[in-house]
């Protein structure tokens, strides 16, 4: 076990109505099972952090580290006030020098830390002060950061070099019944969509939520249908790997058990024709992955089928936003979603920070290359993404 604990380096602040100031401490945990031992505290903090998404749930983080992490590369930064966990971030070292990044690589749509809403600003300042990014060759790079993420407070308190770039475009819709969602469309488009939804209802598709004990079997069906669906268009290479299947099973089972995910199975004429994975948190849902049999596409509107079930689940859970996550696929654009671009944060030490400066140059070059790949060589982009996940 490798743990460093220290008293807060920031000036003590008298809390209102309290005789004694709060005692702030920080910890750096480097043992490979740190996320497992912290799971209960971690999820309790996530429940007190309004910006926390399903990707910050311990079930997702622990599973990702187990299947994608490398021994000795985990760093968990903790902030406590009077012993209670009020700030936390999980990172991984990459390379032999001092690069740090978040967990998840290309599999997550939102990277963040956790901050207790009651003391988020002070917790962010303590977390920023505790990050081991102090030497010229060290830096912290975080991809896919929501503009309102908790880590934005850490960025504001950072005393060293800092840079912010644009990252992926995420899209979302209001969580409302489908008849209200249709009002976003133009007259002709709305009418066509109504006809398609009516056809789905008349076809007798049965939508079934999956209990946690049946999640592995349902996800096996999801991946099988996903491969069939994309066989002629090129499936994301990582989705075919055994480690992705294991991670998907483990993380989803944990999320479903705690109400942070729903797996929907769609049956038509007694046959399983589609499966979808919808992630859930108080602020938003997210349609993460689905598989649909190619024959279904010839009979029914798949997007309407999936969106209808996802919206029902999201509205029923009292969640205000239905997230379409990253990507601008045509089936999403048809619904005229709202758009918000994630950010790419880069933090370096105070003073001379050559590694962070070099990394910033690489980010700029990478973004220019990504634009070229996206517009000219989409298959090559998929291959490079698969390498990023290693």
From TrEMBL:
Domain BioF2-like acetyltransferase: residue ranges: 191-333
Residue span of region Disordered: 1-21
SUPFAM superfamilies: Acyl-CoA N-acyltransferases (Nat) (SSF55729)
Entries under InterPro entries matching the protein: Acyl_CoA_acyltransferase, BioF2-like_GNAT_dom
Top-rank lineage group of the source organism: Bacteria
Any Pfam family matching the protein: Acetyltransf_6
Protein name, UniProt field: GNAT family N-acetyltransferase
